Amino acid sequence: DTGVSQDPRHKITKRGQNVTFRCDPISEHNRLYWYRQTLGQGPEFLTYFQNEAQLEKSRLLSDRFSAERPKGSFSTLEIQRTEQGDSAMYLCASSLGTGELFFGEGSRLTVL
Amino acid sequence: AQSVTQLDSQVPVFEEAPVELRCNYSSSVSVYLFWYVQYPNQGLQLLLKYLSGSTLVESINGFEAEFNKSQTSFHLRKPSVHISDTAEYFCAVTSNPGDKVIFGPGTSLSVIP
């Protein structure tokens, strides 16, 4: 199967630690998106890439969050000095730019 | 800035009854509209989309949505729901296919046997 894959699926960390999530998009997709979803809410846009270029980053996103897509394929999302409010499901999606997003199953972060 | 409103957070409905899930959007530019569905313990997947052309769009499992520009709405309807339709439904909007997509808060549809 060549769907979007995310790793790890679950991460439990202590407040103040750094965490990194990885997303492998569908291979021919040039666009990659990161979203955050908390219980009972819709996905909240974080950032997106076209190939290796980061085109937009949410203004609501703290400087503790950074994302990369160094070779235009996989992407990483790093959260530095985690806080309890960072606990959420982090979703990755990819697309060909036609409007349809293909989502992975998400990486659940719990900050203790 | 674009935004999406889904006024109904939870919609319970009996099996084989009709359902409408409401979605309103705000945007100052052209819009492209989507409905995504999230079944229990699964990832989000596209249900249907409006990009251009006919304002009435349909999914393969009997849902339809109509783009109404004057009312800035994109309500989702199904004439007869099944137990398997129980899921979270998210309305979404973008100003350009390929750009960021803004999601609404979602509506939880529960189909009662």
Distance between the termini of chain A: 34 Å
As a percent range, the share of helical residues of chain A equals under 10%
Give the helix/strand class of chain A: mainly beta
Largest interface: A-B, 26 and 26 residues
Estimate the global geometry of chain B from the Cα principal axes.
Answer: globular
What does this structure look like?
The complex is a heterodimer of chains A (112) and B (113). Chain A is mostly beta strands. Chain A is built from no helices and eleven strands. In chain A, strands 2, 4, 5, 6, 9, 10 and 11 form a seven-stranded mixed sheet that branches. Chain A has a four-stranded antiparallel sheet with strand order 1-3-8-7, with no helix packed on it. In chain A, strand 9 and strand 10 form a beta hairpin. With 113 residues, chain B is an all-beta fold. Chain B is built from no helices and twelve strands. Chain B is globular and about 40 Å long. The interface between A and B is medium-sized, with 26 and 26 residues.
Layout of SSEs?
The complex is a heterodimer of chains A (112) and B (113).
Chain A (H helix, E strand, L loop, with lengths): L4 E3 L2 E4 L5 E6 L6 E7 L6 E7 L2 E5 L7 E4 L6 E5 L8 E8 L6 E2 L3 E5 L1
Parallel strand pairs in A: 2-11
Antiparallel strand pairs in A: 1-3, 3-8, 4-5, 4-9, 5-6, 7-8, 9-10, 9-11
Chain B lengths: L2 E3 L4 E5 L4 E3 L2 E3 L5 E7 L6 E6 L5 E3 L5 E5 L4 E6 L8 E8 L7 E2 L3 E6 L1
Parallel strand pairs in B: 2-12
Antiparallel strand pairs in B: 1-4, 3-9, 5-6, 5-10, 7-8, 8-9, 10-11, 10-12
